[in-house]
Amino acid sequence: MKAQLSKEDLLRAYRKMREIREFEDRVHVEFAKGTLPGFVHLYSGEEAVAVGVCEHLNDLDRIASTHRGHGHCIAKGVDLVGMMAEIYGKQTGTCGGKGGSMHIADLDKGMMGANGIVGAGPPLVAGAALASKLRKDGSVGVVFFGDGASNQGTNFESMNLAVTLELPMIFVLENNGYAESTSVKYSAKVGSENIADRARGFGMPAVTVDGNDFFAVYEAAGEAIERARKGGGPTFLECKTLRYYGHFEGDAQTYRPKDEVKNARANNCPLKRFAAAAVEAGLVEAAELEAIDKDVLALVEKAVKEAEAAPQPDMSALLTDVYVSY
Amino acid sequence: MARKIMFKDAINEAICLEMARDESVILLGLDVAGAAGTDQERDAWGGVLGVTKGIYPKFPDRVIDTPISESAYIGAAVGASACGMRAIGELMFSDFLGVCFDQLYNQAAKFRYMFGGKAVTPVTIRTMIGAGFSAAAQHSQSPYSMFAHVPGLKSIIPSNPYDAKGLLAACIQDDDPCVFFEHKALYTMKGEVPEEHYTIPLGKANVVQEGKDVTIVALARMVQVATQAAKALAKEGIECTIIDPRTISPLDKDTIFSSVEKTGRLVVVDEDNDRCGFATDIVGMVAQDLFRSLKAAPQMVTPPFVPVPFAANLEAEYIPNAAKVQAAVRKTLE
Fold it and tell me: What interface predicted TM-score (ipTM) does this complex get?
């Protein structure tokens, strides 16, 4: 698989993962200062999932996301500077400051939105995939959802609908072990150790991969997306991963084992694993990755500075954008 | 004289014309064609009451039967519409909104605002309302006020075949999410309907008749009830204006207000109860803005605050009738 990725591909994927990590770590810092409004749910630790999947997608392909949506946005090509301004609630934000962290969307990029409702994405992406199928343009729909949302009826209904209508759709389960503070061991006993087993019961191919291994996600997602593009119907892809922060910023995380995150950061970080594998295989040089790190640091710094300096939405924006016409 | 067709055929015709005009129009729902997966011929049902019968043979790729999964397929109608299609999702009975409300209430309605004006979601949801069939509490409600309360949704409630065709065509062409409520007691109502394509603008009331004494506002089947009452009152020399708003979001406030300014008296007839509902809404805005024009307290003729009952005698008492409307009108003249 690594051989199929050109050096350019590898560097682009690494850059995306680094952008997500740097963006989220910085939002964590800024939020702690009390300068950011609202609720924020961070994606650090899960980067290999969003990037491993989205590296196969183009702007015609649609994705829908979750509360924890920043990573999917960045992976799908949404402008990072606009995203930061959106999280600050500023006029220059991706959604003009009217959506915020939980509602960032960029339909031109095929990003149908982060979502404040757990389990809202699967039906929407089923619709996107239905549109793809009717237009016969080879595009696909990908829905990202967590182990929490995997228990929502919308998810089960959408799996059934996707199989019934043979939709070009991929269900990407980000199993990070916790639905808010509730362990997946408690909330997802139906099936077996892997939630993907449930999907197999609906009659679609389902695989479980190490979600911290970019190459494993990339390979499995590639097969699923290729099958969907060729009319082979939906696939379920479970990626086991871990989030580095709380469910939301401010979560004391008393439910987690001591050192869980510390150990994961040291031994199971998707960026470190990617770098080690790619450098060891002689596909990229460490210095190239370090140069990306530096670039991304500067980009996120610029995003924060611009977001801080940007104006709040004009008061007239309160009343606009409810309807196209009314 | 134009030909006369039934309300349900007017709806069917509107869908066919829009599907023929625009390839992005699709129809999905439970049994919208029927017999999916059987060895028998498709188009077995055309919807539970046959409203969409005959559409599948014309557009087999775009009439899509779904499993009984309202969350999934109403959500899919919303999602497809956000991706360039114009989906018509059929939610068989409006009572079933409870199993898919999020996809309308939090998703379709809010995309445009949350996404800073960049989303266009031209979805139309067709759904049945209305009591009168002993269908009881879960198949007889008229819950359009719940939808009208949500910024971002439009609520359309036709009262006759002509309006049904023109308003549904307007909904399908409209770039916002529209919920189109079809009163099941009106399906067999006949009326003049031109064969050609036409639309009726959303947010434009119909003045059914004009009279100087009292303004009656009524929707859907209640327009017939109001008309019946007005006829009886006319014999007593009481002249009524009847306004059918046709859409309650957007609402043609101007037409209602200018009539109430003339008559000074208002009666709202509704098949939904009056708690935080359409009738209260109209009375509230008139009380606030036209208080000095009023000659009497506005009256509401609505069902009691109870679920729709099953037994025929109870249901008959539940639904507003002409006698109750006449009494309310007389009260404004006391």
Answer: 0.95
